[in-house]
Write a structure and sequence with these properties.
Alpha-Beta Plaits; globular; 4-stranded antiparallel sheet; 4 strands; alpha+beta
């Protein structure tokens, strides 16, 4: 079964196109290294919750929107191999260099993790 990396980030509304450009650059690396699919979603219908919500999770301010993203991998081994190669200090991928492709958001507030699917329904 596949393996999923999930991400939630707060991106300044003014940086929407910068985010899309950054994602297109970075996501191509994941695809080249074995990802099956990468989805980047800009907030459209994200309600404020009483106790918690997506905006609170990433401490989004009024001038930021939430982005929800995921990467689908064939399996965890493929994902781990990609990250090991991408982060290899002896040969880092220049497309992931923050000096050349700076993140247009505060990466310290990103929520992310790897997930093993337990239900996978498809049409």
């Amino acid at each position: 079964m596949s393996y999923i990396d999930g991400f939630v980030i707060a991106v300044p509304k003014a940086n929407r196109q910068k985010f899309i450009d950054h994602a297109n650059n970075a996501d191509s690396v994941f695809m080249e290294m074995g990802a099956l699919r990468v989805i980047e979603c800009w907030a459209d219908d994200v309600p404020d919750g009483t106790l918690t919500d997506f905006r609170k999770a990433v401490q989004a301010t009024s001038d930021e929107d939430v982005v929800f993203s995921w990467i689908e991998w064939p399996d965890k081994a493929a994902r781990d191999a990609c990250y090991a190669k991408m982060m290899d200090p002896a040969n880092p991928d220049p497309r992931m260099d923050p000096a050349k492709n700076p993140m247009p958001f505060d990466g310290k507030r990103m929520v992310w993790g790897g997930f093993s699917p337990v239900v996978d329904l498809q049409a």
